[in-house]
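Our collaborator T.R. sent over the components below with a one-line note: 'Predict the complex.' Nothing else. No constraints on interfaces, no templates requested, no preferences about which chain binds where. So this is a plain run: every listed entity goes in together, and whatever single assembly comes back becomes the starting point for the next discussion.
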Amino acid sequence: MMMKLLEIRARIRSLYQKFETYIDPVIKFIVAFVVFQMVNNALGSDPRLTRIPIVLVLSLLSAFTPSSVLVFLAGILALAHIYVVSPFLAILAALLFVILYLFFIRFTPGLGYVLVAVPILKMIGIPYVVPILMGLFVSPLAIIPTGCGVIIYYLFQILRDAAAKQVNMNMDDLLQLYIEVMDSLLGNKEMFLTIAVFAAVIIVVYLIRKLKFDYIFEIAIALGAVVNITGFLIVDLRLDISGQIGKMVLGTIGSAVIVYLIYMFRQILDYSASENVQFEDDSYYYFVKAVPKMDVTVPQFHVKRISGEEEQEEGLYEEDYQDEYSEDSEEGYYVEEDYVPDEEYDSNVEYEEEYPEEPEQR
Amino acid sequence: MLNNNKVRLMTRLAMYEKREGKEDIRLSKYYKTDYVRLNILKTVVSVTVGYLLVLLMIGIYHMEYLISEAVNLNYKDMGLKILGGYLAILTVYISSSLVGYTIYYNRSRKKLSKYFKMLKKLSRMYQEEERAADRED
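Returned assembly:
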């Protein structure tokens, strides 16, 4: 069985390396397309905005730009939908975006996609993918964008309902509308409790996967799901919305499966991408393509306990090696043995001596 | 004539610079105190602007009350509360920024130290080549 799995893994890797340059933009295009379509579905009022050409152009743009562009475009699209119905509400939403950014989002660059992921996934019932994934691959810092994502979801729910109610635009009504929207947002217990449960899931998953046991990632995912179900069980019963419980449990299980699949793919495809680098020295220009070797047989860093029945198989080392590498590289050390072949890397060596002295305190 | 070891080393360095190293190298251009202070400053500005916006929104929310009681309002009291809130939030954000950015900078430096070791090795290689070339002359 192991051999078959390893064969499949090797095959996926070789496929990825062959079509690498195309796979990335294609995936980004598909994701962007889905995102924009869902935004249109959820908020779509004006047929002018929901036309396919617009979605296609925006998706194309997002395919070749960093993910923050997708987040930005999704935000603009959502605001545009609201603006068509009620400019006032759109300005309100924009203000809230700015406030969220200034107080929270600017501190977690690189996690912008979470802001889009949470609302979109919540619309299809599997928002729980985000906290579990964040706990697994990021850190509790991710609570910030996750929480903001939840706020954005509920905000747009409220705005959509408010926009539907608002037919006549009248100065007095506007103030009333504003007060209603703010009341619904700030008094939304479900929203705050959801943020709390997500935060708990992220922390639990993070703490568990930091332990160094076998299969700790799988355990972390499972426990994250359990915490999630328990948390929302309490919340739903407290708030008397028990009808949602079934959907929530199913959603959690589905999310856990998805996270596991993502984890598997990451294991397989990480460190498989080839690199093109350019540099020069006095005599030459260098154009180097570095292709990672597949099926690296490396000395074992991670000794598995050999019981009577268990046997150590060839090729398993790779998996252990990868785990070792990915965990340690997150700590900031390079464990890969042949990075510095003839020198012992001592992490305790002080680095201060190599750098220019800082100027005296003024 | 190409020195394979040298090319290998340079390739590793270039790969690092392109990927994980980019952020670390960007940080390395600042002294630690400068980096932390700069980001704290940015944070202060953002929090101030954000606070003003929040104040605006709260003001509009209570607009009717504020307008009807405009004469009777205790402005001094309100002013003190607003200022107090501002200082409290500012303190929280400044201290967390201080701690956060310092930790971030330190971690990035640690990652860089291995990169710099490789750079030193490369420069040693160059020196040896020069010495070998000089000897031949």
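Summary for T.R.: Chain A touches chain B through 35 residues (CB under 8 Å).
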